[in-house]
UniProtKB/TrEMBL annotation:
The keyword rRNA-binding does not apply. Residues 15-204 form the Class II aldolase/adducin N-terminal domain. Zn(2+) binds at residues 106, 108. HAMAP family: Salvage_MtnB. Belongs to the aldolase class II family. MtnB subfamily. PANTHER family: METHYLTHIORIBULOSE-1-PHOSPHATE DEHYDRATASE (PTHR10640). Pathway: Amino-acid biosynthesis; L-methionine biosynthesis via salvage pathway; L-methionine from S-methyl-5-thio-alpha-D-ribose 1-phosphate: step 2/6. Its EC number is 4.2.1.109. This is Methylthioribulose-1-phosphate dehydratase. The gene is mtnB. The lineage of its organism: Bacteria, Bacillati, Actinomycetota, Actinomycetes, Streptosporangiales. It is an enzyme of class 4 (lyase). The keyword Zinc applies.
Amino acid sequence: MSDLPTAENVLAAGGRLAAESARYTGFGWMRGTSGNLSEVVTRDPLRLAVTASGLDKGELAATDVAVVGPDGAAVAVDGVEPLVPSAEAGLHARVAALTGADAVVHVHALSAVVAGHHWPKGVLLRDVETLKGIGRLAHDDEVLIPVIANSQDMVELGDRFEAAYDPRTPAVIVASHGLYTWGPNLRRARHVTECVEWLLSYAIAIR
Ligand SMILES: [Zn+2]
């Protein structure tokens, strides 16, 4: 069954994206105008509400939102001002399509970039309590946070993500760039982001 995104749904998502973006800005993970968040508005056809391009993520309003399709290109919705979506919206859509997640987070957390530098083949973690925060086990569970090479081409980046994707691990590091995480909703995706960022800081601290 297909449905279409309504302005009401898009602006409600925009309000949630603005509130979450302000939190991430407070954490120092969306410096300048970097980073972007998205929420799936409809699945069939796939439509995402994504933070608009080039704005300070600490100062977003509910209307600072764009709607994109599966390739990250903007899609018009009646009653929603057609803003330019983030250039990275194409990877958000790919993550949402592949993982089934309804919320995708992308931040430029320093720990993710440093960890990607130290462990370009992936960050191996085990026997840490905080692994429970990303749905894994605190003991005897080997967790690899994948690291993929950066690209400005979202199709290429999406292909790298797909090749590295492990359904048990809701995060991927893009080398020299930042972190993508996802979850069934923005709150859960934030908890995952906070825990992954903590785990990466921990891995760097004990290396
Ligand atoms: Zn980025």
